[in-house]
């Protein structure tokens, strides 16, 4: 019911959807259980927020928090939230220059095997595209608890000149909503790192 009736009411049709022309526009890539997205839209009603996720479990997790059981087809929905249930890279490629003011990548799949490195969202071949779509002064937040991915992010960010990159924080900064993935990492004794980089 959620995917058949609620998702279509929130689905972004594409980069030419009028919603994508709203400003400020924020995009979260791979929202997982949706905790971060929901906290952000609650805290920032003035922002047009696109939450991207391809997996049905994640989509249902977020949608179930938005509508009561039985309200899938008619319960009110936030007018400043849209969902993108396809590859976020396709949406980013279609957005105009400087469309985003913030970009979030919270605890992504680390693709830990070297042969899968090309699947990582943080990638040398993607930096220029992300810089294009972020407005000058735009912020990209990245969080990861995986040591391989942490080292990869550090290496990729050190090798570019389009973003200002301060050292990552070792404690979740103020204004960063928690996620269940972070909680699992801390419970398992893994140390998350939190990057906040700025488009030059």
Offer a concise description of the structure.
The chain has 200 residues and is α/β, with parallel strands linked by helices. It contains seven helices and seven strands, in the order H-E-H-E-H-E-H-E-H-E-H-E-H-E.
**Oligomeric state as shown:** single chain
Q: What shape does the CA trace take?
A: globular
Q: What is the annotated CATH architecture of the domain at 1-95?
A: 3-Layer(aba) Sandwich
Output the radius of gyration. Answer: 17 Å
Q: How much helix is in the residues?
A: 25-40%
Strand order in the largest sheet: 3-2-1-4-5-7-6
Structural features, described:
The chain is of the alpha/beta class and 200 residues long. The protein has a domain at 1-95: Rossmann fold (3-Layer(aba) Sandwich). It is built from 7 helices and 7 strands; from the N terminus they run αβαβαβαβαβαβαβ. The chain starts with a helix and ends with a strand.
What does the secondary structure layout of this molecule look like, with pairings?
Layout: H1 2-10, E1 25-29, H2 35-43, E2 48-52, H3 56-66, E3 81-84, H4 88-94, E4 100-106, H5 127-133, E5 134-144, H6 147-158, E6 163-164, H7 180-187, E7 193-199
Parallel strand pairs: 1-2, 1-4, 2-3, 4-5
Antiparallel strand pairs: 5-7, 6-7
Note the main attributes of this structure.
single chain, 200 residues, alpha/beta, Rossmann fold, 7 helices, 32% helix
């Amino acid at each position: 019911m959620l995917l058949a009736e609620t998702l279509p009411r929130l689905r972004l049709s594409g980069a030419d959807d009028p919603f994508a022309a709203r400003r400020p526009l924020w995009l979260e890539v791979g929202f997982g259980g949706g905790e971060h997205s929901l906290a952000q839209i609650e805290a920032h009603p003035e922002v047009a927020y696109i939450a991207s996720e391809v997996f049905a479990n994640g989509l249902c997790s977020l949608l179930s928090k938005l509508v009561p059981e039985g309200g899938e087809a008619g319960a009110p929905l936030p007018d400043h939230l849209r969902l993108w249930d396809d590859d976020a890279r396709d949406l980013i490629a279609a957005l105009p220059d400087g469309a985003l003011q913030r970009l979030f990548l919270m605890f992504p799949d680390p693709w830990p095997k070297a042969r899968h490195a090309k699947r990582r969202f943080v990638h040398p071949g993607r930096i220029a595209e992300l810089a294009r779509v972020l407005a000058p002064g735009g912020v990209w937040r990245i969080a990861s608890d995986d040591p391989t991915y942490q080292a990869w992010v550090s290496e990729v960010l050190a090798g570019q000149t389009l973003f200002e990159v301060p050292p990552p924080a070792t404690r979740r900064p103020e204004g960063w909503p928690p996620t269940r993935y972070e909680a699992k990492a801390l419970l398992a004794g893994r140390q998350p790192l939190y990057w906040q980089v700025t488009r030059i």
